[in-house]
Amino acid sequence: MAAFSYICDSVAVITMSNPPVNALSSALIRAVQKAVEEAIGDFAVEAIVIRGDKGKFSAGADIREFNRLERGPPLVSLIDLIEDSKKPVVAAIEGVALGGGLELALGCHYRIAHAQAYVGLPEVLLGLVPAAGGALRLPRLIGISATLSMITTGKYVQAREALKLGIVDKVVGENTVDEAIQLAKKVIGQPLGSRQLSTLPVQCPPNVEAFLDEAMVKVKKQFRGAQSPLACVEVLRAAVQLPYLEGKKKERELFQFLYTTDQTRAQQYAFFAEREVAKWTLPSGASWKTASPQPIRTAAVIGLGTMGRSIVTSLAKAKIPVIALEQDKKQLDIGSKAVMSLLDREILKMEQLGHTEFTNSLGPVQFTLDYGKLRDVDIVIEAVFENMALKKEIFRHLSGICKPEAFLCTNTSGLDIDEMASVTNRPQMVIGTHFFSPAHIMKLLEVVHGHYTSSTTISTAMRLAKMLGKVGVLVGNCPSFVGNRLMRLYVEQAVFLVEEGSKPEEIDRALEDFGLAMGPFRMMDLAGLDIGWKARTEIGLTGPKLPIGTPARQRGSKRYSPLPDILCEKGRFGQKSGQGWYKYEKSGGRNAMPDPWLYNFLSEYQRIHNLKTHYVTQEEIIERCLYVLINEGFKVLEDGIASGPEDIDVIYNNGYGWPKYTGGPMYYASIVGLPVVLTKLEKYYGANPDIPDLKPSSFLKKLVSKGNPPLKEWRSHLGFQSSML
Ligand SMILES: CCCCCCCC/C=C\C=C\CC(=O)SCCNC(=O)CCNC(=O)[C@H](O)C(C)(C)COP(=O)(O)OP(=O)(O)OC[C@H]1O[C@@H](n2cnc3c(N)ncnc32)[C@H](O)[C@@H]1OP(=O)(O)O
User: Where in the cell is it found (predicted)?
Assistant: First the structure.
């Protein structure tokens, strides 16, 4: 770790170095401070350039030091030193300037960025606010409105957009540091007053107080339950209302408050969990370190339904040339139009952000009915509807057509990968790539490892996730994999609670207040109730295959609720039919309204089935729905379907709208305390012995018996004998 300098024509170049991302650790900050002081005091130096080693300016404060810090890094004084320098200081931004890294750049008098660089203040994503002057300097540079959008979302802004906003002074295609040196030389001797952002007035819209009040309302709604976005609005209010130095005190106070909250700890855990899951290891010893991913230069997608279209879009966005195949001309025409419209929307979004180059850098998409065109692609992703016979037919066909090195992936959300692999001539190259809808937006890719899948195939699929800008999580092959296996029980519990007397909107509200992006009933209505109905009909849980005489509310010895099936029989499929658990203004409408028809229907249902209803509290809703999901999470670990609790948390945080500020379901359980979760499950199972999924898992019981160890120790209590990975 070093901040070293060289002098080039009277310009001192200070390089921040702390691989891999030049995070501003205390040691690096001290080293940069020393180098800046030396440069300021050196008569031979007339200007200074600050850059980051290995093509990255800085990813901000060293998050790994957060738990060890008592008083926080002295970054603020370094930035003040830079801004107060009489010699001009230029930031040469390559790669990333994030968080404290951007704050440091904002302390510099000029900023030059490479075209591929990103800047941002993502502290909010870690449950914090920018606290090294970023939330005070940025509104003085680009105004309140643009700052608000950046700091409350933590979004990364590409160099060209940063230029448009005024965050950087120039964008260059190459030689960023040389350009910075040239600029530094040019401005030697020029007055720096207008370049010291802390001395400038904040750029406010008229009636800024009303603007901030409105922003607070919006942010509360958008990030329900999260504290740091609200603190971001507060910090901006301080920037507007207070002189810079007082604003600085407020910024620090808010940071100090957030710094001790459970939310920031959970979000930091979630950050590292995302990095952790990329480091997969199999019991065989094969791992992300040893396996070599194969290049993916071209791809094909089979099926242009909702998922196929957005998978094609996702590949094109990642600049991967893709061939999209449909079975008949009509479907191909519909699908290709839909893809082109998705791509147009993406282009428009990027153009609005100033990325004119984006249009040209989309991967080309070719539409075809001809399987022969797939001969040379590196990877095929099958995305037809969930029917094993059809999928097997496709895999058999691909096996004969694709080059032997091509990987065959399926986007199934829960069918058996091994069964599909068994009909191919390359079972070791078959893998599940379970995308989440819409695939060009959602960050999760569940990578499903079958019995035969090779480590090269796993590593290639995990690389694909990264290429698509997604988080890949490796899981084992079991019905519904990890995400949907847990989700099914959560939804089922919600439906049982309706039978017991609660209302869909009460359950949705309770879970949305907990922080979930969407409650289970609104989610079912959005996804379409008919999808689950078809699946249940296929496996004989309902419909003509159900043996005559099966009790309506029982399957085997387990409780079953036929409510969703009955709604479908009545044509209530959710949003698409204008009625489901809610009613909508029209078919395809999105505005969910409680439906008096449903209340009458439920009373009649409860009467027919002689159900005793009770007042279901918010506590019971949260506990039964979430603890049953968490309990299944422990079973998934026990079964070796996921290798650690982080995998489950990353899946839920990125694919199921779980609030990241609680860390994910397993982290949340660790905060509630495993003995509490166990006791509650025992209580609910005792009251509902016909719901065996409420019976505490043996792994949960084992952890409690081991004294409730912290989450990072859970893996060591797992036996790997049963691992499916
Ligand atoms: C107590 C009161 C004190 C009051 C005083 C207040 C003063 C406060 C002063 C300053 C505060 C500043 C706040 C911050 O700056 S918070 C940090 C903000 N920055 C971020 O959130 C950036 C996060 N990182 C990323 O987005 C990505 O990592 C990125 C930089 C884009 C690189 O992405 P990629 O190439 O995909 O690589 P990885 O994500 O896998 O990362 C590679 C490894 O680097 C580690 N990493 C990344 N960022 C950091 C960081 N900021 N600190 C430490 N480590 C970081 C990451 O974990 C990977 O590590 P590994 O390979 O071991 O897994």
Answer: Peroxisome
Low-confidence ranges of the chain (pLDDT < 70): 1, 68-73, 353-361, 720-724
Per DSSP, the three-state class of 317 is helix
453: Cα within 13 Å, side-chain hemisphere:
33
CATH 1.10.1040.10 residue window(s) in the chain? 501-608, 618-640+643-717
d(CA 140, CA 130): 15
The pLDDT of residue 725 = 73
Residues of the chain with CATH 3.40.50.720: 299-479
User: 0.90 cut: is pTM over it?
Assistant: yes
Helix (H, G, I), strand (E, B) or coil at 451: coil
Q: Which of 123, 274, 492, 512 is catalytic?
A: 123
Backbone angles phi, psi at 588, to 5 degrees: 85, 0
Name the class of domain 618-640+643-717: mainly alpha
- 3.30.450.20, 3.90.226.10, 1.10.10.10, 3.30.505.10: CATH of 2-260: 3.90.226.10
**Domain 501-608: top CATH class:** mainly alpha
463-516 per-position pLDDT tens digit: 999 999 999 999 999 999 999 999 999 999 999 999 999 999 999 999 999 999
CA distances from 86 to 43, 90, 179, 193, 199 (A): 12, 12, 21, 10, 14
Residue nearest to atom 39 of ligand 1 (CA): 275
Q: Which two tokens stand for residue 45?
A: 């130096």
State the distance from the centre of ligand 1 to the C-alpha of 268, rounded, in angstroms: 10
Counting from 1 in the atom list of ligand 1, the atom nearest the Cα of 126 is 21
Reported as a single tens digit per residue, the pLDDT across 654-688 is: 999 999 999 999 999 999 999 999 999 999 999 99
Q: Is 123 a catalytic residue?
A: yes
Q: What is the CATH number of domain 299-479?
A: 3.40.50.720
Whether residue 505 lies in the annotated active site: no
Q: What are phi and psi of 448, to 5 degrees?
A: -105, 120
Cβ contacts of 244 within 8 Å, gap of 6 or more: 136, 198, 199
Strands 471-476 and 444-449 come out as parallel
Residue with the two structure tokens 């301080």: 238
Per the CB < 8 A criterion, the answer to whether 655 and 487 are in contact is no
Radius of gyration in angstroms for the set of CA atoms belonging to the chain, rounded to a whole number: 28
Distance of CA 578 to the CA centre of its chain: 30
